[in-house]
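Form 7-S
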Amino acid sequence: MREKWVVTAKGADFKKIGDTFHINPVLARLIVNRDIKDMDGIRKFLHGGVNDLYDPTLLKDSVKAAGMIRSAIEDGRRIAIASDFDVDGIMSGFLLKTGLSRIGADCLIYTPDRVSEGYGLNTRIVEQAKAYGASMIITCDNGIAAFEAIDRAKELGLTVIVTDHHDIPFEEQADGSTKILRVNADAIVNPKQPDCPYPFKKLCGAGVAFKLLCILYDMYGVPEAEKYALLEYTAIATVADVMDLQDENRIIVKLGLDMVRHTKNKGLAALIQVTQVNPARLSAYHIGFVIGPCFNAAGRLDTVKIALDLLSENGEKEALSKASQLKELNESRKTLTVQGFEQAVAMIEGSPLKDDKVLVVLLKDCHESLVGIIAGRVKEKYHKPAIVFTRVEDGFVKGSGRSIECYNMFMELTRQKALLSRFGGHPMAAGLTLREENLDALRKNLNAATTLTETDFVPVVHIDVPMPVGYITREFVRELELLEPFGKGNAKPVFAEKYFHVLRAQILGKNKNVLKLQLMDDHKTTMDAVYFGDIPAFEAFVAEEYGAEQKELLFNGRRSNVELAMTYYPDINEYMGRETVQIIVTGYCRIARKTQ
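Output:
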C-alpha cells in the first residue's frame, strides 16, 4: 500500500523540557509532537497519578444518580445492572456489581445475546429485571439510545439510570441544525452530553461506571485504596475499547496496567497464564491483542457468563478451566476471522465494490460476532471506511463498521437512519441492523453522499524524529518506556533514516515470518534490524526497484546496491543473557539520492 511520509515538526524548547524533567531532549520532542506543550501537561504525561484524575462529581447527573442508588440500597430494593457483551461491557458490568455489592446492594447483571438481540438494553432484559424484583436498572456501556427499552422500564415503574459513553443520538433538521434525542431515563451519566461540564469526553463505559462508584465509595466511606483498585478493570476496558490513551485515560491505563501485572484476581491471573503472557512485560498491546480478544470471544449469553464468572472466581483450578474455555473460543474465532476476511477481499476484488469509497460487504455465512473484526481488517487493507454485514433472521442483516480518521461514520449513518432498523456507535465505529432489501440503497447512498477523495485513502505516516541509528543506546531505548502505554491517541513513536545500505537479508522463523536485515547508514554505522511485515511484498519491491539479480545478491549475503529509506522503532534484543541494540522496521521506500 502507498503511504505518505510526513515529518512532524512542532517547535518548543526541547532542552529546557529535558532539563526540567530529566529526560533526553528527543523524548521532549516526542511529547511535544503529541500536542503536550505546557509544563503541567508534560508532568501529567510522565508522572500523572490518582491526584490528577478529574472530580467525578463534574459528570452531569452523577451525584443525582449516586443519591438514587444510595436510596435504593438503604430501602433494600434490588438493582439490575444492564451490561453488554464486549470487553467494555463485561468490565463495566463487573465493576458495578463489585462496587455496588461492596456497599451493600442486592444486584444482578443482565447482558443481551449478541446473536438474537444485538447491542444494548432491550425489553427482554427490562421484563426479566422486573420479574427478578428489581426496582432500578443501571445501564453501563449502553443505554444512551435504548428508547424503546427504557420506555418499557418506565411503564413497569422502574427507575432507570443510564451510564454510557457512546455518542448522543440526534436528528438532523431541515435547516442543517441538529436536535439532541434524550432517552426517558431518571439520570444520564455520559460525558458526551452537550451540557455536561466534565473536562474529558473520552472515557470508556467502564470509565464512566468507575467515576460513579468513586462518588458512592466516598458516600459510604470506603477506603481510597479500594476505590483505586478498580482501575485494574477500567484500564482493560479502556485499552480493549480502543479509547484515546490521552489525558485521564493515559493515567487510568498506566496505573491500571501496573495492577494487572501484579493482579490478585485469580481469574485474570489464570487468563494471563493460559495465554502465555509474561506478567512482568504485560503492556497495552497484550490487553488489546491477547487478553481483550479472549473476553470478546464471549459473545453469547452463556460465554459472557463464563467471562463474568472468571473475574469472580476464587479457586485457581476453576479459574484455569474457565480461562482455557475463553482462550479456546478465541482461537476458534481467529480461524473463522481469517476465512471471513479472505472472503470479503475476494468479493471486493472481484466486483465493482473495489471502486467504492465506502466499502459495504455482505458475507453470507459469517458469524455476526466476527463482522466487526473483519471490518477492521478490510479498513486496514484498503484504508477506506468499511461495513461488513451478515444475514440474521427474518430477512435482516446485521453489520459492524470501522472508519478512517477523516470519515465520521456515526454522522453519515445518522443521515441514512430511514433505511436502518437500529444503529449506534461513534465516529470511528458503528453497529447496525437493517432489512436486506435496503442494503444496496445504503451502499449507494453512503457512496453518493461522501466527500472522501483519493488522497484520503493514502495512509499518512507521521515521522516523529529523523534520527541516525548511531544515536541509539540501550539507555535511550529504556528511556522510551516513559512514553508508554502506547495505543490509539498515543502511538508508538516513529523514527526514520533516509538512506540505509542494506547489507544482508535473511528470512527466519518457523513460519518464515521474520526478516532479519543488516543495515549501514551514511555515517558507516551498522545495525541489525528485524521486519515482521509482508516479506513476499518486500522481496517483490526490491526486485522491482533494483532487479532480480540484486535481490538474489542481497538474500545470499553478498554485496548489493540496495538502498532504502526506513521508518523504525529502537529495540533491545535479548538473547542468552546478552543485550544488543537493534531496530524494528515498520516501513520502507526508495528515495533517490540527489545528484550534485
